[in-house]
Structure to design on (944 residues):
């Protein structure tokens, strides 16, 4: 669609400079900067702050922090240096140095400048500066909160007419030390799966994109928010975000909104560039607001900005939809981790639930996005808008579990719930966005005009060549009523199209009829429907058409090859096209009879990637079938493949036996496990904070104090004749590390004498993952000098694996040991799913199968060795689910014959001894019994 943004009302806007003028300090008109006094802030323990942040953000719905406020009282009267410029103006300067800071921002607890005065803020090297602050920034609340300035040294330069010097009222109440977020290096950016709004995916969402801003509050926390229109369309600068972003009546003045913070090019999603630094700028900003309303249960906050965004920035005011309904799809626009603006798509229907619930309930507070099909959200995305397919806001992000690499859900507080649920104007939207109580529940964006073509479907298909009708709505945006002329392009030669109404005046509709389709023949084609008002507004939609005159043929899987070994656990399955194939259904099963389906997908294409990993070292079976509007084709030949073995897996063909298997699901120390020998104020406990699968893991806390925390397993007897022996466990850790080593750390010990003595498992036996380094001896850690795990953080689950072959034939115990030193805390160490695994040689297994012919009726059931019932519904190959070892006897029999029509089925080659390959020559032949005098085989079968 093409929509135009114009302001139909006169938006008053303060005469605030829009660009960063050059300070006198950078023009050489004043003394050297080195002579200007410096206010010093000591370096912060960034690692400790990040550890605190990790704990804070483990719970969904927490506003991330990027800076730490330092309370000060700084005025031009008591600090800095006054000078006189060449033109007679008085100039006050001060430097602020925050050691190793990523950024600095300031809170002026008192701000009032006379006319003609300018306050400049810039980095000491002059590379980063923002527009000057003037008397236009004087607010009734008397405060000013600045945007962030890059670097660890900030320079203030106040220029004031000499006669007005005594009218200056400035007081810095807080220096906010930025340690992450804005200006973060490449190692700490948002996930690479995110999609820049300038990518093609954002082309149809330019107006909604223009409404969204990254924000800071209190100089220390960040979120996302957006401008909202109101029923009066009067340009009141209302701005929404999440309630948990903590804007209230007491701190609304501290809100800073940054506009159009976007990368200039589309970084390919999934690429290193997409996960690295962007080139967006933060020079378009507003500062200050007044609190209007908030509601905790739907997590919204509404404020009114102190001034409207500059017209040159083309900031939109989002439309919204307060109707009580879910949507068929949704789009999110947000700033993950304070990075450049991104866009995410949910192509499936949303649902209405309680916060963090998956249970649909139309009376609840939130919209649930089941998973993101394109992009994701992250910390910092909180408060961002969720748009309906029509481009209207339906909610703002409260929280969830979505991230790059998962398919987890997010929850958005519903506009419909926030509309009028609260008991007063300060707890609902209605009073502000519909002040005259008109009852309006749907509003488009301010200044947003145009139309959109909305066909009933964009994919047509049928069996045969009859005419096809397609309903098309021409939706209206704003007050647009220009007649829209419709046309089509790209149809095959001879195919004709006609519109029942043309032109169409929005909002309106028409019926498009496609005729003479036999001239297109079987197969697929695309054409476009184009609409134009003859001026600035146009829109185009692509329509696909698939025509068939018979059921499809048979496809064939081409990759992986039949019998392939070492296939990825997330394989891409490819197949050849079927004649007249339209939809393809892929099935992956754990057995050749496809009674244990582990993955299925239906799509229009010939390739499919399995995103959820299959089990390692496992044989799977794949087949594909095709369908179209004329019917369903036969399944392809079955292909088997075996997935790759990972370290800690038993070799393919061997038998795995778990000698110890513990998931800690009981929520307490399991029987036979022990924490004996631990010292300090804490030791290993069952925890729900992180768990790999079930509800609990075992957890050793990383406190700022000396501990020696020990967790010992029961004794395990390791066989001496095993092919392989492994210890596998799931690991999650956020532990204080040092440069090249550890301050705190964990390690694994083994005992072969019933726990009388213990030795550390050496690096040489660890398959996954090596110790991170040596634990420091400087701060009293009981494990000082030992190698340990301390990756800070590795706050995600991964399987660690140890080779136990060196201890084969012995009785062993294992001990997870965690040591902390006298200072600095982190989260700690979680372990889960502990397995001691033995691998023994397995005998080859083979399938029993054959072919059925002559089958007409239903009810045929075959058996092998008087069991393994196998219902048969059609002629063709069959395979029993149970595999058999070589040398075993098999006997295939008919357990029950078909009953309608009545048939007798006999088995040929049905018994024998399994050799060294699959048995596939069993023959089952069915013949229809002649009807007796009381039966007519052409009658309908009796009702069930």
């Amino acid at each position: 669609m093409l929509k135009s943004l114009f302001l139909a009302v006169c938006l008053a806007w303060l005469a605030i400079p829009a660009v960063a003028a050059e300070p006198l300090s950078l023009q050489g008109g004043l003394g050297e900067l080195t002579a200007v006094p410096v206010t010093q802030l000591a370096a912060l323990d960034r690692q400790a702050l990040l550890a605190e942040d990790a704990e804070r953000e483990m719970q969904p719905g927490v506003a991330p922090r990027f800076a730490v406020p330092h309370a000060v009282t700084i005025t031009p009267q008591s600090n800095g240096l006054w000078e006189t410029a060449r033109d007679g103006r008085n100039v006050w300067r001060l430097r602020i140095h925050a050691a190793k800071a990523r950024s600095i921002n300031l809170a002026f607890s008192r701000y009032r400048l006379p006319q003609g005065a300018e306050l400049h803020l810039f980095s000491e090297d002059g590379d980063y500066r923002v527009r000057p602050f003037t008397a236009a920034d004087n607010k009734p609340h008397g405060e000013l909160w600045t945007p962030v300035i890059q670097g660890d040294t900030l320079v203030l330069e106040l220029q004031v007419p000499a006669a007005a010097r005594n009218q200056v009222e400035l007081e810095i109440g807080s220096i906010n030390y930025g340690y992450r977020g804005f200006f973060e290096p490449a190692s700490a950016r948002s996930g690479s799966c995110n999609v820049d709004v300038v990518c093609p995916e954002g082309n149809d969402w330019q107006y909604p994109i223009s409404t969204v801003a990254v924000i800071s509050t209190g100089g220390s926390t960040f979120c996302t928010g957006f401008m909202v229109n109101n029923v009066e369309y009067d340009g009141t600068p209302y701005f929404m975000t999440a309630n948990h972003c903590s804007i209230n009546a007491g701190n609304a003045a501290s809100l800073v909104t940054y506009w159009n913070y976007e990368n200039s090019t589309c970084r390919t999603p999934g690429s290193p560039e997409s996960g690295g630094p962007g080139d967006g700028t933060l020079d378009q900003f507003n500062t200050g607001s007044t609190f209007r309303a908030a509601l905790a249960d739907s997590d919204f906050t509404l404020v009114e900005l102190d001034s409207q965004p500059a017209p040159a920035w083309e900031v939109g005011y989002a439309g919204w939809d307060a109707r009580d309904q879910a949507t068929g799809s949704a789009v999110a626009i947000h700033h993950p981790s304070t990075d450049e603006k991104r866009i995410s798509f949910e192509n499936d229907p949303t649902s209405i639930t309680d916060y963090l619930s998956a249970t649909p309930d139309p009376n609840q507070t939130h919209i649930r996005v089941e998973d993101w099909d394109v992009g994701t959200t992250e910390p910092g995305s909180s408060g961002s808008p969720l748009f309906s397919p029509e481009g209207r806001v339906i909610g703002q992000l409260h929280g969830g579990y979505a991230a790059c690499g998962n398919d987890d859900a997010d929850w958005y507080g519903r506009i419909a719930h926030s509309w009028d649920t609260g008991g007063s104007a300060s707890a609902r939207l209605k009073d502000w966005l519909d002040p005259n109580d008109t009852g309006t529940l749907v509003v488009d964006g301010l200044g947003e005009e145009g139309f959109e073509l909305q066909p009933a479907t964009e994919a047509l298909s049928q069996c045969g060549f009859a005419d096809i009708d397609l309903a098309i709505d021409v939706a209206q945006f704003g007050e647009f009523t220009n007649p829209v002329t419709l046309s089509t392009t790209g149809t095959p030669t001879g195919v004709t199209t006609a519109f029942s109404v043309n032109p169409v005046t929005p909002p309106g509709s028409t019926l498009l009829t496609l005729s003479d389709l036999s001239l297109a023949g079987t197969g697929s084609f695309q054409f476009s429907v184009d609409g134009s008002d003859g001026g600035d507004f146009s829109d185009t939609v692509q329509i696909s058409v698939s025509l068939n005159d018979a059921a499809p043929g048979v496809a064939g899987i081409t990759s992986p090859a039949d019998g392939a070994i070492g296939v990825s656990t997330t394989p891409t399955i490819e197949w050849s096209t079927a004649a007249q194939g339209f939809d393809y259904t892929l099935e992956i099963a754990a057995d050749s009879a496809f009674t244990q389906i582990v993955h299925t997908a239906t799509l229009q294409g010939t390739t499919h990637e399995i995103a959820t990993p299959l089990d390692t070292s496992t044989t799977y079976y794949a087949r594909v079938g095709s369908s179209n509007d004329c019917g369903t084709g036969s399944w392809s030949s079955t292909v088997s493949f075996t997935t790759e073995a990972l370290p800690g897996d038993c070799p393919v063909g061997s038998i795995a036996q778990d000698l110890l298997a513990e998931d800690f699901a009981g929520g307490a120390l399991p029987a036979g496990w022990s924490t004996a020998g631990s010292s300090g104020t804490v030791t290993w406990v069952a925890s729900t904070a992180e768990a790999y699968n079930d509800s609990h893991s075992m957890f050793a806390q990383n406190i700022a104090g000396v501990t020696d925390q020990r967790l010992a397993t029961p004794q395990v007897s390791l066989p001496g004749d095993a092919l392989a022996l492994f210890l596998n466990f799931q690991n999650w850790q956020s532990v204080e590390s040092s440069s090249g080593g550890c301050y705190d750390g964990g390690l694994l010990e083994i005992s072969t004498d019933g726990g009388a003595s213990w030795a550390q498992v050496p690096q040489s036996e660890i398959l996954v993952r090596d110790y991170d380094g040596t634990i420091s001896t400087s701060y009293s850690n009981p494990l000082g000098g030992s190698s340990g795990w301390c990756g800070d953080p590795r706050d995600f689950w991964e399987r660690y694996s140890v080779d136990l072959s060196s201890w084969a034939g012995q009785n062993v115990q294992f001990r997870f040991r965690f040591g902390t030193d006298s200072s600095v805390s982190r989260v700690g160490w979680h372990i889960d799913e502990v397995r001691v695994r033995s691998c023994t040689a397995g005998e080859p297994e083979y399938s029993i199968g054959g072919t059925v012919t002559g089958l007409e009726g239903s009810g045929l059931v075959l058996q092998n060795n008087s069991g393994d019932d196998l219902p048969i519904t059609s002629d063709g190959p069959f395979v029993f689910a149970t595999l058999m070892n070589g040398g075993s006897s098999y006997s295939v029999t008919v357990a029950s014959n078909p009953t309608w029509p009545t048939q007798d089925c006999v088995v040929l080659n049905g018994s024998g001894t399994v050799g060294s390959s699959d048995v596939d020559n069993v023959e089952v032949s069915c013949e229809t019994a002649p009807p007796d005098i009381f039966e007519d085989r052409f009658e309908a079968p009796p009702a069930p």
Observations:
- The first strand starts at residue 3 and ends at 5.
- DSSP finds four helices and 70 strands in the chain.
- Residues 768 and 800 are 5 Å apart (CA to CA).
